[in-house]
Amino acid sequence: MNKEKILLSVIVPVYNVKEYVYQCILSICSQTYGNIQIILVDDGSTDGSSFICDAFSEKDHRITVVHKENGGLVSARRAGLEFAVGEYISFVDGDDWIDENGYEKVIASCHGEFPDIIAYGCIEEYPTYKNQKRNSIKAGLYTGENLKQLKGSILMNENFFEWSVLPHLCDKLIRRELLMECMKDIPDTVSLGEDVVCSFPCMIKAASILSLDIMPYHYRQREGSIVKKQIELEKERFREIYKLLKNSFLPIDTLERQLHYYIFFLLCLKGYTKITDNMMLFPFCSVKPGDRVFVYGAGGFGKVVKNYIDHSDTLILCGWTDKRAEEYIRQGVLLDRLETIFAREYDKVVIAILNENICREICDELVGKGIPRQKIDFVCKEQVDCAELPCWLEVK
User: Fold this and answer.
1) Cis peptide leading into 283, omega within 30 of 0?
2) How far apart are the first and last CA of the chain?
3) What is the C-alpha to C-alpha distance for residues 235 and 192, in angstroms, rounded to an integer?
4) Whether 342 contacts 319, CB under 8 Å
5) Would you say the C-alpha torsion 323, 326, 327, 330 has a positive or negative sign?
6) According to DSSP H, which parts of the chain are helical?
């Protein structure tokens, strides 16, 4: 297939992102790879985002604008897919952007091989720093036996919890027919793991996957995400994603265990109290009733653990910090400065970060600065291995 003849359909769900959508659309219109179809799906925006979409469409014949009632991300993506005619589909969220030579680099990196899925990396864009995210598998084309082996560990590598392939739809090109087949069974109501329930079934069904070690996509992390309130989701949300993924993963036995890890990962972030009924402080097995606990980590899981201890009748919170404590403090988070961890008295430091490798690095750093190793607990796969998924997950 001639690379200049490949038509790429770029779908942009837009919902109340007036502040960012101009940059997003401009980054797509400015692509050095010109053979693209741009579909802007206004999902019932009320802030003026829809007018920006219409203004762009008047100036660029490649743009189609779809206006619809608000139905959520899955609904918006599906609506865009109905208008897509390209060989490949790409998604760009309305508050993100892509390097102007991004799609040209992706297509050129194929070197004449055009697989079912092309997966690359992204850069998480925070207001004061960037975080590079890559697939943890080796770059290259996966087919045949190599692809079969990859599918056996497609969700998570050997560490809890690190993706083998990033879960986002926005850092992939997917053949249109494959994407349509996998999206048809995803309810519009899905609002937890919307990317995972589509991207991983696509990878399971794919006959070829190309992994690239480039990061042309910029994933904006709005700092509301740092200070926003943590909301526990109802059990039905977890049942829905568990059922969808379990059905998709049935052909591969080894993925049942991977699904086990992923669901615990989700529960830790979005349903923590639903797994702690019979556990003191999951997954920190060494913590005992009456312990004074210092929490390290102010990300999503760190906030969850801190709040849980704060409201516990059996544990005492005696500190909360993070490597980026000063930045969080400037944004209004009531956090202790990092040096506090070396000055206070406590029984345990729990590293509340859902990445085993990062936890080990922090543990080594704390031990190197004088904190006894026996006082530190952190998340690792063995602890999650021993836990049973809640019985309420199984749909009767």
Assistant:
1) yes
2) 48
3) 11
4) no
5) positive
6) 18-29, 49-59, 73-83, 102-108, 144-151, 176-183, 196-205, 224-227, 235-249, 255-270, 300-310, 325-330, 356-368, 381-385
SS3 content of the chain, % helix, strand, coil (to 5): 40, 20, 45
**Alpha-carbon span 124 to 322, nearest angstrom:** 19
Structure tokens given for 273: 């109290």
The neighbouring-strand residues paired with 41 are: 13, 66
Distance CA 332, CA 115 (A): 46
The structure tokens listed for 393 are 């997950």
Dump the DSSP string for 330-390. Answer: HTT-----GGGGGTS--SEEEE--S-HHHHHHHHHHHHHTT--GGGEEE--HHHHHTSPPP
Angle, helices 196-205 vs 176-183, to 10°: value is 120
Helices 196-205, 235-249: crossing angle, 10 deg rounding: 10
| Residues whose CB is less than 8 angstroms from the CB of residue 191 and which lie 6 or more positions away in sequence, other chains included | 72, 73, 237
Mean pLDDT of 60-88: 98
Sheet bearing 130-133, strands edge to edge: 97-98, 217-220, 122-125, 130-133
d(CA 266, CA 345): 32
Residues 6+ apart with CB under 8 A from 48: 18
- Encoding tokens for residue 124? 């998480």
Query: Which two structure tokens, joined as six digits, stand for 30?
Result: 């400015």
What is the pTM (predicted TM-score) of this model?
A: 0.94
Nearest to 37 by CA among 72, 65, 17, 2: 65
The predicted structure's pLDDT at residue 227 = 45
Task: Give me 42's structure tokens.
Answer: 């206004």
Q: Are 292 and 318 in contact (CB under 8 A)?
A: yes
pLDDT confidence of 40, banded at 50, 70, 90? very high
Q: Which residue, 313, 244, 301, is CA-closest to 275?
A: 301
Please state, in angstroms and rounded to a whole number, the distance separating the CA atoms of residues 158 and 160.
7
Query: Per-residue pLDDT tens for 321-359?
Result: 999 999 989 888 899 999 999 999 999 999 999 999 999
